[in-house]
Sequence to fold (495 residues):
Amino acid sequence: MLVLVFVAGVVSGTAPAVAAAGAQDWSEVDAFVRGRLDATGTPGAALAVIEDGRVVHQRGFGEDGRGRAVTPDTPFLWGSLSKPVTGLAVMQQVEAGRVELDAPVRRYLPWFRLSDPEVSDRITVRHLLTHTSGIPASASGEIGDRYDNAPGALADAARDLARTEPADRPGGSYAYSSAGYAVLGALVEKVAGRPFGTYLHQQILDPLGMEHAVATERDFARERVAPGHRSVFGTPVRFDAPYDTSGVPYGHVGGSVKDLARFVRAELGGGALDGRRVLSAKGVAETQRGHVDSSADRYGLGWSVGTLEGTGERMVWHDGALPGHQAMVVMLPDSDRAVIVLQNAYHQLRAKEFADAAIGTAQLLSGAVPRTTPVDGFAVALPWVAAALGAVLLLSVAAPVLRRLPWRRAATRSRSRRRIVVTTLASAGASLAVAAFLWWLPSALGGTLPMALLWLPDVGWGLVTAIALALLLAVERTVLGVLDLRRGKRSAGDV
Fold:
């Protein structure tokens, strides 16, 4: 039929028009992505669609953190999409015979340890790759996001795990851990004898033609990576963070959507692109195979593995985030298709909404109804709740001004000493309990207060303010109680 159409076009002189009509219309995809960006308040993003081993559509949306239009050449940081890159680097060492997946990590890094030496001795390379090492998820907050670019920063971060208490035996359970990937980066550094970022350039990024990829502090400066955006009371606010050499293996690889598309094409192509091979097809298949059950489907050696909702098609994917950046790759190997979305904003409590841009586009291209997650009312309300709590505590601290009024002084004189003591202890104790609860709350949610300040600044500063006011209130109530006792004693003496 295509031949007949083409012949008819030649005869009628309309062949070019027929060819143009055959081009795919991407307006529906672009409109969907634009809608998801509007829903999350994301200022800028880049999209790429890969089919049959080539990029068939790519474009930019909105502006970067410096007010420039986003294009397919705009650099972003990829967050945890660094993990598949690290997984590939480790597998290169496996195929070169320098590393064994089931060998103890201490064979390559004798200094590696957790607080339990016995557990440390049993952790293998595979355990780290599949997040089953026993290193708790909270360890990522303890050693991550330190923005350390000094020589040896990556190894120093991994060494700091010596203070970490293991959460389970190695191989016992899945616990997503960026800290484990920091150890893998240090392992590659040691085995390869060069800094991790340098290794990535020489063995993966440069061979795949990822010309503007970011894996070192120098790359970050050269590519002039624009600030991302954090949410402050629902408004995207620029966050101009420095680079973090200590976090490259788990979160600080970056580049344009064009760069990431070349990496994904190599993944879909069995480890090769444009005649350059970075890993065997068997090795790539091993990274994309689900090895363990995870919190989201199954996890391989750097990739999550599951099915695309609405079609049931096998899906190999990973998302990533840093304060101010979000990225996601969705690969559908059976149909040789992939979707990439990079965004210059992020909200930790609305992660699923940000992921909709890539997941929904993949569904749309596969003929399914695209996912659109409703706005999380809790995430929107939480900063305001923290601010309201701070306001209430501030009013409580200011309330003793009323004691200057005559009727308040009279009320104080009329109270018994026992009542003053009980009231003071109850008030101060309640204030200390509030401060302790607010300090504990981030850890109960799997983080720390410093992490809240970094990832959710409005909530974090609200908590810090409320904790400080609660402590101040406890001190104030104690002091006022002592003054009331003295005043009451003087009044009794006068009588």
